[in-house]
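Honest question from a wet-lab person: if I give you the sequences of every part of a complex, can you actually get the arrangement of the whole thing, not just the pieces? Trying it with mine:
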Amino acid sequence: MSTAPRTYSYYVEDRTRETTDRPAKFLEAFAAVLEHSSYALPLDIFSRLSTKCSRCAVTCQLYEVTGEERDIPCKRSELLLAVYRRYFTYGGNLRARLGGSFELTDEYIDLMGENYYRCTACRRCKASCPVGIDHGLITHLARYLLSEVDVIPKALVVSTREQLEGIGNTSAIPPNALVSTCEFLEEEFEDDYNVQIKLPVDVEGAEFVFFPAVSDYLLEPDTLMGNAAVMAVTGGSWTIGTGNYDGINYGLFYSDRMMERIIKKEVAEVRRLKGEKVLIGECGHATRSAWFGPTFCGSDAPPAINFLQYTHAQLMKGNIPLLDKKIEERVTYHDPCNLARSGRITEEPREILKAICADFVEMTPNRTENYCCGGGGGLVSIDEIRSFRTTLMGKRKADQIRATGAQIVVSPCANCKKQLAEVCEDNDLGDVQIVGLHDLLLKVIDFGPYRAKLAAEQECPLSNLGSTEEPD
Amino acid sequence: MEALIEWARGPAFIFSLTFMVLGLARHLLLTLWESARVIRRAGDRDIPYKQVFQATAKWLFPLDKLRHEVVFSVTSVVFHAAILVVPVLLAGHIKLLAATLGFSWPALPGVAADALTIVAVVTAIAIVIQRGTARATRQLSRIQDYLLPLIVALPFASGFLVMHPTWSPVSFELMLFVHVMSANLVLVLMPLTKLSHAVMLPSVQLVSELGWRWPVDSGSAVGVALGKESDPV
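Yes, you can. This is the full assembly:
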């Protein structure tokens, strides 16, 4: 019987304490995962080649602040590599027969449960590893295996359950509330900007089916209005689907099994609406997980793009008319790890910001080397670890923001925005405003040409027949 | 003593060299085989080869990486350069190999070889000292991490004394025996320890990328294997 107390820094569900025989179940899951995915190759190479040089330590924003041994990325990865070596390599088996001492225990599982949630899986350390070890991959895998013995932060599993088995999204917004929110935002456009802009719902055959972090519908009306405004002035063909309107995928943070189910749900909605592409709103992890579409669904999965890519392309083509005024405050940009670490989206937001801001400054380091906000890997959703997130994990980020002297920090990611707001509150940066990119863009879009086009169409309604923006 | 040296240079060396070559070849072939299998099974085969290649090249010639952790980085790069260059370009080694291979190549001048040998030994010791004194490395290090640089330095230190017998505390023959046997030890350790990075390093950036390339339906396949396919979240 277990003697481990099974207490963690984060809240867990009752079943975490009730699961029996965890070491055997962990190893059974490990064997199944090795067989059905592609982790065996990196585990084999990493466990052989890891040189323990510590370069990862000096690039980890957590270790830089805590100096604790358990926070060295290489040390953390070693926790799982030791299990792999002992149970899944010839050498490890042999050593065990000769009286090797390592054994996977209940306590060891708890140690992993704690330490793998002291990492945001930001993958900053990968670039500093001379050997090229991806510690983010190890954190990802370790959490997946831990979830198979029910070690999962309550915040993550509760949201995922709501999304897959409840109302259908992580914020539990019912479809009729979504429709009213869209109508409310349309009214806001009329009241605040004197312009008619639709948030199209359930339009079949649109090019893009839109999946923001669903929390945007509750918390970020300006981001959504910015998205809708860009689509309106560029004549973009898009729709929100009432079958699924949530881009959030906590599977990326704790379970490939859940990640696959959530992605398949997204793809199913695109197919139901006969759309062509997945369009992800301002959210880093939603984007990165949507990029896994072909991984789980094969090469005919609809391609996924981030809204920044669409807006950037349209702005460069001159399709987004801007007012003469610019954003006057000093603005800086925080790169969400899930967009920037691999170098996939770094320049698009900068070019947009430079076009609309009078005083844009970079924080250092940036782009692929940027510090994580401190809430990555799902940590931001775990409210009970706030002080860990903001004072230890987020310390470097606060220093970075302070050094820029910026009044506005732009980050196109729902998770980063929540975390950065808390980092600023807890680090004496209360005056700094955290906003999305489309929020700022909305302030400087010139709706004049769009209004004129609408007026012309109203005079001559036949010209509107070809539009895909009217619901069936 | 002479018989011992002949044994060390003959059968013992051939065994060590063969062990190293076969061991490393096994690692390399298994990695290539497994990489090909991962790519074949992957749902998403759109792999950013260019980026992987660039990252690999950057770490094989890590000159722009020296600006972080300057002392440790420079020591490490110099150490690696020295231990790669000296054994291959040493006049004595070339002469020995030319007798077997039937061809030779230009050697380092004696002074340069001496200097680089000293550099190899000094940097090896410096690496061990830095490992023990810097907090993060000390926290990470296993016994082998301290021992391996010293074991690698052994053939260099003994080789230097073979070339300069007047400085040697022991007889020339004994020093030659130590030199050859310590080199044999390094060869044997290559495939068994982290020293295998000498051959495997160029594969790791690709391997790190391939780790994320799972087969289609890999999540549900795990669910089925564990009998959890219809379990609630």
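Two things worth pointing out. Chain A touches chain B through 64 residues (CB under 8 Å). The longest strand of chain A covers residues 327-333.
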